[in-house]
Protein 1
Amino acid sequence: MALDDTSFARIKKLVTDYHAKIGDVRNDDNLSATGQRRALAKLHVTYRDEIKGIRDNANAAYQDRKGYLMGEVFGVHGATNPAEIMAMRDAMTRVADIATPDQARRLFQQAHLTGDEYMRRAIAAHAFSQRSGGPFGGAWEQVFTDYAGTQDERRQGHIAELDQLHQADSKRARFQEQILCGISRPTELDGYGDIDSVATGTTDLGIETEGDAA
């Protein structure tokens, strides 16, 4: 999952508002302890769900855009000739078992010499998917760069955008996103397993003691 800048800013504001309203509830002397817990639960559920909705929409947009770019950079978007589509599928099948960058580079050079664009694209796509992990990440990166350097200006623009999306979905970015979006449950709700039922009033919070009264 990767958040775009607009979604990131919206969630950041929601988190700030959430913590401010939590403070308002805690400082409201008109609320009993039970009323406070109920209000805190409602706040948590409301903001949790709104943040989730933004993340889900951002992720759907991210996946759609990434899929389009992958098709433009490595595939045969818009192809109507069945033979062209089959050639691309065959190339992808052939490169699926390539284990090392050296193997990929040798096959890429052969495809370049023979003008086999389908194979070149399939190898580049495989290298792109392998470049971020394992001990050969840098070598896979070079295979992908060899392909990118031969593309026209339009496709290089797509490659640059695809690379930005890839970086936005890195482990570090996902960790930062998780920290941002993971609003904490108020400590007053510790011990309540189903916070949604607390928010809706279906969980009995018990009879207030004198100390619970407002």
Protein 2
Amino acid sequence: MRASPRDRRGPALVALCLALILICAPAAAEEAVIRVLPGGTAYEASVQVTGSEHAFWTPGLMGERVPLQVEDLKVLGSSGPVEYRETGRGVIAFPEGNYTITYRAPVRDNHLVAAFDTPYAVTVALPEGVDVRNPLIGMVSPGGAVSSGPNGTTEIAWDRTAVVEVRFYTPDREILLTTFGTIWLAIALVLILPLLISRRRGGE
């Protein structure tokens, strides 16, 4: 017995609603985890990749793409490491699929910049004794949420971004800034106070 058009309308309506939800819902960003190593001169990254190619680059002074030199590069599939080939400066290719790429890259002058071809959900973990919360010497690119991580680490997370930038500092640098700030404030008071006193006396 054939189902009536009214009976078939329910499942068709449900299928249409599911299709609209899938089309309208934003695609979840792939994840990248960056861990700054103790000493702050290098970081290790783990990046999820879907496709057959990945580029390692960092923004230059004029915003241009500068190839990033990486070490200990591995492309990991569901069954282990996958062979890759270099197709250009900072570009590698591999069979189409879903992978996790791990590598190590340098950090210069406590300034970390990581860039991706598409938006990622990025987490940066800073080692114990390193911070970014002082706006005079620390900096986090827009959208980054700073929180305390395990074992005295600091974590910064972005929900969706193509470029992350972090400038971190050590406690001794913060102490040095505080000391110099206090000295300059004292010098300013010594220079300005006599002027204020003389003006006050002149107005009496």
